[in-house]
Amino acid sequence: MIRRIPYTILFLCALDVSAFAQDSPAAASPYRLFVSDAKIALEDGLSYWSAPARFSGRDWIIAGGAAAGTVAVISADNHLCSVLSIETDDQLPNSPWEIPTYYGEFPYAGIFSVGIYTAGFVSGGNSIRVTGRLAFESLAFSGTAVLLLRYISGRTGPGPNGNSHDFKAFHWDAERQSFPSGHSVAAFALSTVLAERIDNPFARIGLYGMASLTAYSRVRFTQHWTSDVLAGSALGIATGLFVVSREEDREGKGGKREGLSITPTANGLLLQYAF
Prior knowledge:
5% strand; two-stranded antiparallel ribbon; single chain; Vanadium-containing Chloroperoxidase, domain 1
């Protein structure tokens, strides 16, 4: 039962009538609607992974600053672990900290996002359906990035003999899955989309607060280094904001769309790059 608590709360927030009006688009067959959503998700995915090719000088400065900040925290990880890790993993079961821990698990977050999408799809609530799609996109894109970064970094996690500087690139050993924190990525990837779509100060506090508790719990129970959690949180937030921004562009709330796009044609799909 404890695993359902955070998602029950979020489901009530996601279905807030004041946040999501029943603004269904013109009547379309369920098949066409689903295909359209799938095409948009694929288009967003291509844009997500090609984003570095479109970085401006300012973007690279921000990315460089984030990387430098991560390196700085890595140098202090051993000390931060001794200060912040006040409990061991065997104290986690049946404790209140299970709630934020489960909140950051990709399978549960993915099921929840599909549930939102299905609710909007069946009820005809366009905003609810779109929010579910964006949440799923955010989780899928950031989750793939987690797998790639873990393989590249090959970092060991904290433990009795843990060393925060133990990296072995391009290894997929079970004990080298620490950077970045997957729970932190999932929690912030989901919370960011929901918070930005609901656009309510109380929802923002609750959603970002829950994600922050998820991140802290990974350090508290010595599952991750502090830098793992900070990097994961940043990745989740950035991915969530990315997909929300893409949708705002489609809805005419943003600027000119850039990057790769996919357009159905009589002969198949047309790939375009706009800049």
